[in-house]
Amino acid sequence: DQQVKQNSPSLSVQEGRISILNCDYTNSMFDYFLWYKKYPAEGPTFLISISSIKDKNEDGRFTVFLNKSAKHLSLHIVPSQPGDSAVYFCAAKVGNEKLTFGTGTRLTIIP
Amino acid sequence: DTEVTQTPKHLVMGMTNKKSLKCEQHMGHRAMYWYKQKAKKPPELMFVYSYEKLSINESVPSRFSPECPNSSLLNLHLHALQPEDSALYLCASSQDPRRRNEKLFFGSGTQLSVL
Description:
The structure holds two protein chains of two kinds.
Chain A: E1 4-5, E2 10-14, E3 19-25, E4 32-38, E5 45-51, E6 56-59, E7 62-67, E8 72-77, E9 86-93, E10 100-101, E11 105-110
Parallel strand pairs in A: 2-11
Antiparallel strand pairs in A: 1-3, 3-8, 4-5, 4-9, 6-7, 7-8, 9-10, 9-11
Chain B: E1 4-7, E2 10-13, E3 18-25, E4 31-37, E5 44-50, E6 53-57, E7 64-70, E8 73-79, E9 87-94, E10 105-106, E11 110-114
Parallel strand pairs in B: 2-11
Antiparallel strand pairs in B: 1-3, 3-8, 4-5, 4-9, 5-6, 7-8, 9-10, 9-11
């Protein structure tokens, strides 16, 4: 049972444009959401997070939006840069329980 | 120091070998984790240590044996592994396992190949 889903396995975006990565979840008890970025053969790197009491969190070029009624979150990267090419995982948790990861989206930024 | 350091980076072992993976963090974090990641899949939780005590074992086979000698170190002892155990093994830490809204810091992983 995949409680966190990223339905797009891959996404290509031109450099300078906006990248939008999507994530859907089924567990309404999730109250904390995170995005991680992963390069090949490296560990995931934390990008940005959002608590369920908010609907938006921004950090530089990265913004995460949370729509609790739709059980959907998205990560916006603007402007997209070549170094943003990586696999992006969304993750969610209930309280201090374990993280549940999505299946990942491979983002390719085209110069 | 905001790093989680894992050694070795790569490991090739036979099915009869015994080897250990090591993980170290000096951020004062009190929770440490082992994850396994296969290609094109999300990380899967294996074990959690909270205040140096094993708090979660996700039904991992006994050929994987974790050890937390102190609050900065985490080992994963490997014995009689199978080829399907080949994967990237990730260590992670977080500040306080009792707190909500904790983010995990990951190491770069050990790429393990079992022949």
